[in-house]
Amino acid sequence: MNIFLGLTWILLGSGLLLYEPITGNPSPGIKLGDSTLNAGWLALLLAGWNGARLWSSFSFQKNDQMRKYALMQRSRTRQSEERPIHEEFRFDDTNPPSPR
Fold it and tell me: What is the DSSP code string of 59-96?
C-alpha cells in the first residue's frame, strides 16, 4: 500500500511542479504571506513520508525475523545439551531412591 501511495504522490507532485513551466498557466498552490508554495512540493513531501513508512516496515520485519531466528537457535542448543540428572530431584516412579 505504501508503494502505491508513494508512487501516486510522486506522479502527482511531479505533474504539479511541471504544470506551470509546460502550460504557462499558474499552478495550484498554497499562499504563504506574499508568496505561493507550489502544491507539488507538498505531494513530494507525502511521497517521502510513504517511503519512510515503507522502509520502516521492512526494517521491522527484518528485525523480527532475526529475533525469531536467535530464539530458535537458543532453543536448539538447549535441547541438544546433555544435562545431568540429579536423582534426588527426580519425582517419577521409574527409579525410586533407596531409603536411608
Answer: HHHHHHHHHHHHHHHHHHHHHHS-PPPPGGG--SSSSP
